Automatic annotation (TrEMBL):
PROSITE patterns: 2FE2S_FER_1, 2FE2S_FER_2. Residues 15-91 form the 2Fe-2S ferredoxin-type domain. Keywords: 2Fe-2S, Iron, Iron-sulfur, Metal-binding, Oxidoreductase. This is Oxidoreductase. The lineage of its organism: Bacteria, Bacillati, Actinomycetota, Actinomycetes, Streptosporangiales. It comes from the Bacteria. Transmembrane segments: none annotated. PANTHER family: OXIDOREDUCTASE WITH IRON-SULFUR SUBUNIT (PTHR45331:SF2), OXIDOREDUCTASE, IRON-SULPHUR BINDING SUBUNIT-RELATED-RELATED (PTHR45331). The keyword Transcription regulation does not apply. Gene3D superfamilies: 3.10.20.30, [2Fe-2S]-binding domain.
Length: 179
């Protein structure tokens, strides 16, 4: 029978942080090793971001931090004190859906819906990157403004997987809003 060894480590180290989530200041005490995904889901009851692979490969956990896309399963909460976090729950303005949310509905850009929150947050961030003139790996003229064609959308959304295969409709929804 194996015996537990005293590793010299005490209880987990916790820290108080104040997160700005969906426009609301949210003080929370977290373990210094805790990911943003776990904080959102377990402490703040925001379950839109999904734990798909927990390795940053599927994109189901994508949220926006200061308007930029991040994989919340790879981001430590302690690094986000006083940063602006937007989850899928914060995209709509009251009862008015974000244009991408409306476009996803209109184009039937989801099937099971598990990846949809991450897809939506990633698409919002991606459209902001295009608007700011950031090139991607497939941008033909890196000195000019990126043209939002299907190849550009597919490349920019390649970090978000859809196991149901709704990619054609996801691309159509993003193209509709980006036009």
């Amino acid at each position: 029978m194996s015996e537990l060894k005293d590793t010299g480590f005490d209880d987990p180290v916790t820290v108080d942080v104040t997160l700005s989530v969906n426009g609301e200041s949210r003080p929370v005490t977290v373990d210094t090793r805790e990911t943003l995904l776990d904080t959102l889901r377990e402490h703040l009851a925001l379950t839109g971001a999904k734990k798909g692979c927990d390795h940053g490969q599927c994109g189901a956990c994508t949220v926006l931090v200061d308007g930029r896309r991040v994989k919340s399963c790879l981001t430590l909460t302690v690094t986000l004190d006083d940063r602006r976090i937007t989850t899928v729950e914060g995209l709509a303005a009251g009862d008015t859906l974000h244009p991408l949310q409306s476009a996803f509905i209109e184009t039937d850009a989801f099937q099971c819906g598990y990846c949809t929150p991450g897809q939506l947050c990633s698409a919002v961030g991606m459209l902001a990157e295009v608007a700011d003139g950031w090139p991607s790996a497939v941008t033909a003229d890196v000195a000019g403004r990126p043209v939002l064609d299907d190849d550009e959308i597919r490349e920019r959304m390649s970090g978000n997987l859809c196991r149901c295969g709704a990619y054609v409709n996801i691309v159509a929804a993003i193209r509709q809003v980006g036009a």
